[in-house]
Design brief:
Elements lengths: L7 H15 L9 H13 L5 H8 L5 H11 L10 H18 L5 E7 L5 H11 L9 E8 L2 H9 L1 E2 L1 H5 L4 H7 E4 L2 E4 L1 H4 L2 E5 L12 E5 L9 H14 E8 L13 E3 L6 E4 L16
Helix pairs in contact: 1-3, 2-4
Bound molecules: S-adenosylmethionine.
S-adenosylmethionine binds next to loops.
Length: about 290
């Protein structure tokens, strides 16, 4: 059977819905991804094609199907210790610096914004747990958030396939922090207790998570358009302590993206507030406020 390509307008409408709700852009040259990502959903709901899906989604009563469709279109790629050098920089430079800065309070709050299925937040937890003698009398709070309810449920479960567990994790850490259950590997409850996951849109938070000492927002902003990215940077800046640190993905930088952050001189891949004390305020209209 020959399937005709979906009408360009259907993919364009779906990409538009994704951007309006999540900020994530899909370039027209990658619209083919929409068909691939939504194929299982079409099959599951017996919807013949993307045109029919768009027609169904135009009914406001089908909000939950819209949510499902948007979640299917999001890129949730993640793995443990993604960008090893940056995690090494966290361990050897950022955490010791913050240990000195917070020696009175003995509290550190870390936020993984757009954390996907949990590998990133659990990697941070492993960094602390592997040096737990240093942190015994400290309160370490790690919060992982993502716009997708599906990935947040997966992150909370801390259950990974053989393929996922092998991506980025050393055999030593795999055996130390996971136990095998059938085909899957399940996170150690001690590590699971260190991390709290919750569904949140970076651009339109439902709850005030408070201020953080470190924010990891990795491989999320690169899929936002320039205006949305400015709004996101302003939100991140407001959530970061004045002397806190921001970590982006290895392919990302604040250079020519925002004047709210600048590169730290001494910590590779980490950014600090450009002007501590200034409240991040975008001069652009804020459609996500
Ligand atoms: C490519 S993954 C990166 C995951 C992880 N940070 C890493 O680098 O391995 C991007 C994640 O950002 C999430 N995301 C996209 N837009 C978001 C938004 N507006 N608010 C919160 N999370 C968002 C997606 O659901 C996805 O799980």
């Amino acid at each position: 059977m020959i399937h005709s390509p979906p009408a360009a307008s259907a993919t364009r409408i779906l990409a538009g819905l994704l951007e309006a709700r999540t900020g994530q852009q899909i370039a027209p040259s990658r619209y083919w991804r929409i068909q691939t990502a939504l194929a299982p959903l079409l099959k599951q709901h017996a919807i013949p094609d993307l045109d029919a899906l768009v027609a169904v989604l135009s009914d406001p009563d089908n909000e939950s199907l819209l949510q499902e469709s948007l979640e299917a279109m999001l890129n949730n790629e993640s793995f443990f210790f993604r960008d090893t050098a940056l995690f090494a920089s966290l361990r050897s430079e950022a955490f010791p610096t913050l240990r000195e800065r917070r020696s009175q309070q003995k509290t550190l709050r870390i936020w993984c914004a757009g954390t996907s299925t949990g590998q990133e937040a659990y990697s941070v937890a492993m960094l602390f747990h592997s040096e737990r003698d240093k942190w015994t009398d400290w309160t370490i709070e790690i919060v992982g958030t993502d716009i997708s309810a599906t990935v947040i449920e997966r992150a909370k479960a801390g259950r990974y396939s053989q393929f996922e567990i092998q991506r980025g994790l050393s055999v030593d850490y795999m055996l130390r922090y996971f136990s095998q259950d059938g085909e899957d590997w399940v996170i150690d409850p001690a590590l699971q207790k260190m991390v709290r996951f919750q569904q949140e849109n970076i651009l339109k938070p439902r709850t005030d998570l408070g201020k953080f000492d470190v924010i990891l927002c990795r491989n999320v902003l690169m899929y936002f358009g320039p205006e949305t990215r400015s709004i996101a940077y302003a939100k991140l800046e407001r959530s970061l302590e004045d002397d806190g640190l921001l970590m982006l993905g290895a392919a990302e930088s604040v250079l020519s993206q925002t004047d709210l952050f600048s590169a730290t001189r001494e910590m590779r891949g980490l950014f600090c507030k450009a002007v501590p004390g200034r409240t991040g305020k975008s001069s652009l209209p804020a459609p996500f406020d």
